[in-house]
Amino acid sequence: MTRRSCAIYATGIVCAHLLIVGIALVVAQVFQTMIHSRLKKEMTLTEKSRVFESWKNPPPPVYMEYYFFNVTNPEEFLKGGKASVKQIGPYTYREYRPRENITFLENGTKIYALNPKTFVFVPEKSAGDPKVDIIRTVNIPYVVRHDSSGPLLFMTRTVDEFLWGFKDPILTKIHSMKPDVDEYFGLMWKKNGTHEGEFVFHTGEENYLDYGKIDTWNGLRKMSWWSSNQSNMINGTDGAVFHPLINRNELLYIFAADLCRSIHLAYVEDVEVKGIQAYRFAPPSDVLMSPEDNPANKGFCVPAGDCLGTGVLKVSVCREGAPIVVSFPHFYQADPKYINAVDGLNPNKEEHETYLDLQPTTGVPIRACKRAQLNIIMKRVQGFPKTKYINETIFPIMFVNETATIDDDSASQMRTLLLIVTLVSNFPLLIVGLGIILLLVLVVLFCRNRQKKNEVKRIDFTEAFHSFTTAKEDTAYTQVSDKPDEPSETPANQPMRNGSYIAMSPVEAQKC
């Protein structure tokens, strides 16, 4: 056997083995299963996990932007006209939110933690100075306490006072009679450096799908504010982590303590953030849909049957009875009647949608935008002359835009991790690809070998034919006579004789 033949047979054997092994691994999904198993073990809230440190102290910077609705025509509204507002902001604060008092429970299957939030003003990302800029807005203490002898229905304060607190004359008067009532008011009063409650999370050790899910909040597994068991459920995570191997068809649940309820998010589209492919999830329209259109929301009507329309949620039950309503900014996805009740609103998806971009393999949030608006119900109250002519309105006060995007270092690490995962998961395809390449090489070698053999046969035939032809030429014209050639001296009157070659006898010339 020639060296060329050996090479062809060896290539064929290797090619066959690669194709068989590669196809078998692809069908069995051995490497993919191995990677998924490793991810499920790595994505846990345990000290040995690589994600634990980033869960305790998230590296991506979180920014809280505050926007306010400045009332431009308070007198007209008090006379029964439509309110007009102008959005001002943002006033941006860097948010620091480390986990503290971390304690493992029940053999490491659960973990207790507090999550205090601290806010630091960022002037370069803000529209102005909160200690200087003044806004005119609803006098919330007056509306909540209904003090008939109080000041005007609207008040003018600096942004800093309205956010972080000021001593309010109405509350001071009440405080003198009820010391348990705080005499200071601010939308973020006593919320800088404090937490939203005590959380116990599942670590994901027992089931990767439970990774980061809330077990209890302030010792509760369900709330008691709402009018149905489903509405009172504490579902999902706190929004910081999600289980790995997310698919597009599932719903993700988040418990939002500031909204006093759990909400769900559905897949919207594929996006790319800093070179990382991600799935975008957002609250679908049914989250704040009217109970008439979505009966599952009947439980959020308190008392039962007292419901608002689509796009708004009354949270008085968890705000000490205050007529507070939450919605998306500018009443995005809300009933048009709420949008049209106030001039100056312009809801749009780009600026007002809440969404979460998740890397589906690891479940890590790559980018997040949480947007929520605070409103208050303004209506006539008998015995309070200042409300005599106003029309009932869900009045916008302010909205927040809480954003976070993965930092560059974390993004680089994520891209490297995903590259490794992709290469390992697709290793069987690489084997199949190599087998196909060798198959092509085998075909080329085989064709060239056939061509070489044909060339050898053609050369042998040509040489044989040439030898046969040469031999024939050497023997074709041998003379019969042994007589040496003599010069012809035929007389002129004597006729020529014919025939001096093979098979040609001399013949006398015939006379006509």
In brief, what are we looking at here?
It is found in: Membrane. This protein has 512 residues and is of the alpha+beta class.
Question: Which key terms come to mind for this protein?
Answer:
alpha+beta, disordered C terminus, four-stranded antiparallel beta sheet, 512 residues, 29% helix, 11 helices, twelve-stranded mixed beta sheet, elongated
Note down, in words, how this protein is organized.
By secondary structure, the chain is α+β, with helices and mostly antiparallel strands. The protein has one domain (44-422). The protein contains eleven helices and 20 strands. It has helices at 3-28, 30-42, 52-56, 74-78, 140-145, 159-164, 169-177, 336-340, 349-352, 408-425, 427-475, and strands at 62-71, 83-96, 100-105, 110-114, 118-121, 134-138, 154-158, 166-167, 184-185, 199-202, 214-217, 252-256, 261-273, 276-282, 312-314, 324-327, 342-343, 355-358, 365-378, 393-405. Strands 1, 2, 5, 12, 13, 14, 15, 16, 17, 18, 19 and 20 form a twelve-stranded mixed β-sheet that branches. Helix 1 runs antiparallel to helix 11 (427-475). The longest helix has 49 residues, at 427-475. The chain is elongated, with a radius of gyration of 45 Å. The protein starts with a helix and ends in a 37-residue tail after the last helix. The chain crosses the membrane at residues 7-31, 417-447. Residues 475-512 are annotated as: Disordered. One of its GO terms (cellular component) is membrane. It is found in: Membrane. This is Scavenger receptor class B, member 2a.
